[in-house]
Design brief:
By secondary structure, the protein is of the alpha/beta class. It has helices spanning about 1-10, 15, 215-220, 270-275, 295-305, 325-340, 360-385, and strands spanning about 50-55, 90-95, 105-110, 130-135, 135-140, 145-150, 155-160, 190-195, 205, 240-245, 250-255, 280-285, 315-320, 345-350. Belongs to the TRAFAC class OBG-HflX-like GTPase superfamily. OBG GTPase family.
């Protein structure tokens, strides 16, 4: 009983010693516990962050060669209509999807219809719109970046449809009253692209292998990343949504574990460090049961600094996980002292397995999210003023 009281007091003091002021923490909306069942692992679709596609736009319809036959006049002149235009293939960024697992390797748009007699034009084909996550980078077959879809609704024309051919009516002239020629429809474009998604989660779980990141994401959301007692259990990023009672949702990404030398592409390397760039805030998940747990924080800071020093300026919360273990309880005071020396005061002791301390983390997470929204609104207003 005394142990529980001591941890309750320790958690309560987080709001006082944190780097930011959380004096109004009680006013922060509370996270909701979803009544829905957890998603089944055998039904869950993996997060696909890299995918190659071939896009083929539709060809234009052929123009028509036709002559009007009117009453009492057999040859009343040409009346061949134009062909319809082929459909484009468009890539559009949307917040409704967060993965490329729905994409097909070959994406084709329909061709336009042929022109008809009596000056009837062929029907133009509809465009094919492929929804991709916000933060998708499009590279051509020569590895050049041709589009960065980093805002809601941004659209990239991946392949343009061919124009419809003109019918023989178009070629009527003073010297040629009955042309017997028409145009073929133009072929549509076709290209190969490589799509790369840098996750745009509001917060990313950063830590060494087996620090408990996946267990933490399972505890605070309906996501079901694989949990196992061996390194590199997480091979693909997973994103879970944390709902709050004011209908806001915070996206949290479980990123694969980093190891020393990740910035040199060791382990899962640079590919997943790139995901960190799109996370607005970072949650350092530290296994407090390991010897000298503060060295994990130093390793993570070093890898981020070597990859992109600007990542060290992101809003940060340190999660001291596995606090239910005796060795973690013993090392917690030393961990807090060492992190305070490094000017990191926001440390949340918790156990993702038992649920101890999750409530405090969720409130601090929401406060971080609200701070990010304020910065985004300020930057958007500044851009509007400059424009």
């Amino acid at each position: 009983m005394n142990t529980l009281l001591s941890y309750t007091r320790a958690i309560h003091l987080i709001s006082v010693v944190s780097r930011r002021h959380y004096s109004d923490i009680e006013n922060i909306p509370r996270a909701l516990r979803s009544l829905k069942k957890k998603s089944s692992s055998h039904l869950a679709r993996h997060f696909v962050d890299s995918f190659s596609i071939k896009v083929e736009a539709g060809s234009g319809g052929d123009g028509c060669i036709s002559f009007l036959s009117a009453f009492a006049k057999e040859n009343a002149g040409p009346d061949g209509g134009d062909g319809g235009n082929g459909g484009h293939v468009l890539l559009q960024a949307t917040s409704n999807v967060n993965s490329l697992n729905h994409c097909q390797p070959v994406i084709r748009a329909a061709s336009g219809e042929k022109g008809g007699h009596k000056d009837c034009s062929g029907k133009s084909a509809s465009h094919v719109i492929v929804n991709v996550p916000i933060g998708t980078i499009v590279r051509d077959e020569y590895d050049n970046v041709v589009a960065d879809l980093n805002k809601e609704g941004m659209t990239f024309v991946a392949a343009r449809g061919g124009a419809g051919g003109r019918g023989n009516r178009f070629f009527t002239s003073s010297t040629e009253q009955a042309p017997s020629i028409a145009e073929y429809g133009a072929p549509g474009e076709n290209f190969r692209y490589h799509l790369e998604v840098r996750s745009t989660a509001h917060a990313g779980l950063l830590g060494l292998p087996n620090a408990g990141k996946s267990t933490l994401l399972r505890a605070i959301s309906r996501a079901r990343p694989t949990v196992a007692p061996y390194p590199f259990t997480t091979l693909h990023p997973h994103i879970g949504m944390v709902p709050y009672d004011d209908y806001e949702q915070v996206a949290v990404a479980d990123l694969p574990g980093l190891i020393p030398g990740s910035h040199l592409n060791r382990g899962l390397g640079i590919r997943f460090l790139q995901h960190v760039q799109r996370c607005r805030g970072l949650l350092y998940v530290i296994d407090a049961s390991r010897e000298d747990p503060w060295t994990q924080y130093d390793q993570l800071q070093y890898e981020l600094e070597q990859f992109n020093v600007e990542l060290l300026q992101r809003p940060t919360i340190v999660v001291a996980n596995k606090i239910d273990l005796p060795e973690a309880k013993d090392q917690l005071p030393a961990l807090k002292r060492e992190l305070q020396k490094r000017k990191m005061h926001c440390v949340v002791p918790l156990s993702a397995k038992t649920g101890i301390g999750l409530g405090v983390l969720l409130r601090l997470l929401r406060d971080m999210y609200d701070g990010v929204l304020v910065k985004d609104n300020q930057s958007n207003s500044n851009e509007a003023t400059d424009g």
